[in-house]
Amino acid sequence: METHTLYKDELTWHPACQTDHVPEDGGACVLLGGRQIAIFNFSRRGEWYATDNECPHRQQMVLSRGMIGSQGDEPKVACPFHKKTFSLKTGDCLNDDGHTIATFPIKVVDGMVYIGV
Ligand code: FES
Fold first, then answer.
1. pLDDT digit string (tens) for 18-47?
2. Which residues sit with their C-beta closer than 6 Å to ligand 1?
3. What region holds the Rieske domain (predicted)?
4. Is 73 left (phi over 0), alpha (psi -120 to 50) or beta?
């Protein structure tokens, strides 16, 4: 039987925005294929992350404006409304089991941010 494994090289990388459009230690929202994606420039850690912009708690499009930080070694974003916090790596909610957000591969090349789908 033939099996198929998705390798990172099989992702399609979509240009999302220029790096200087995303504030240091902050986020920005881009529209990709009709879906709002939150992009985070976690400059304190030298890392970039991409997640859904929608907070699943009350379906608010706000996560790009959330406060980012670390819980232990886990990078996270806190929704500005009711402070549910989500891992930027896995999308799991760290203070409420019932919610998860999607996360996306992200890379920066020559001042451009790319999202992998
Ligand atoms: S809408 Fe995000 S925590 Fe309530």
1. 999 999 999 999 999 999 999 999 999 999
2. 55, 57-58, 60, 79, 81-82, 84
3. 13-115
4. alpha
